[in-house]
Amino acid sequence: MEHYIPDALQKCPLFQGCTPEEAASLAKACRAVPVSFEAGETIPLKGSEGGRIGIVVKGKATVYSARDGRTILNRLEAGSLFGVSSLYSDHSAETLVVADSKAEVLIWKEAHLDPLWQNKKARENLISFLTGRIRFLTERIASFTAPSAEKKLIRYLLQKAGEGTSLSVRSYSDLAKELSLGRASLYRALEKLEEEGLICRSGKEVTLPSPEKAELYLAR
Fold first, then answer.
1. What is the DSSP letter of 3?
2. What CATH number does domain 148-218 carry, 2.40.128.90, 1.10.3290.10, 3.90.400.10, 1.10.10.10?
3. For a disulfide at 97, which of 43, 78, 151, 205, Cβ 3.0-4.6 Å?
4. Which band of pLDDT confidence, cut at 50, 70 and 90, is reported for residue 192?
5. pTM above the 0.70 mark?
């Protein structure tokens, strides 16, 4: 596994701007440990030495709300960073991270993170990452509290897809779960938005032809 750890670290937002050697050196100094997880297995964010952060090295995982174990908060793939909110807190983790398939994760334990915080670039990257997560969660809250299924869907698409680009959904059932909608409500919303020309669909590809028009729809 070690021969491709530097590649995964280079994709990780925590090490943007660092050389592969710097990233690998920090992983070694922090005693980061590669751990394998089977499909369906929960990746623990707490241990006897406090919180843990993880970097997906291989495979994919899904982040769920710990409150119901069903609401999807994020999708993780190689290079994804997770678990930052579990650090330096006595509270149990607010999320569940579950491997979608066999996954390999580099685990960093809270007790051994001092070398990471001493690296200026890594600190700046962490602040940038957390700022991005705050924006992401604010947008998710807005989508969950939108007054209609159509507006929930439009907010989600504006967040995920840029102008003229297609968003590939894993399945419409998964999309319904992400939006906390029933499948029937989602399909009705898709059909209505398509009729109004706000989206285009082709199989599992959904496109926003005009984000500006979508923004005006939200303002109604």
1. G
2. 1.10.10.10
3. 43
4. very high
5. no
Q: Which helix (H) or strand (E) holds 166?
A: strand 166-168
For residue 154, what are the CA distances in angstroms to 102, 174, 218? 33, 16, 8
Kindly state the tokens that stand for 74.
Answer: 């994020």
CB count within 10 Å of CB 209 equals: 13
* DSSP per position, 59-88: S-EEEEETTTS-SEEEEE-TT-EE-GGGTT
Q: Residue 198 gets which letter from DSSP?
A: S
Show the tokens assigned to 180: 């906390």
Which of 214, 216, 218 is closest to 163 using CA atoms?
214
The sign of the dihedral angle between the CA atoms of 129, 135, 140, 141 is: positive
State how far the Cα of 163 lies from the Cα of 143, in Å rounded to an integer: 19
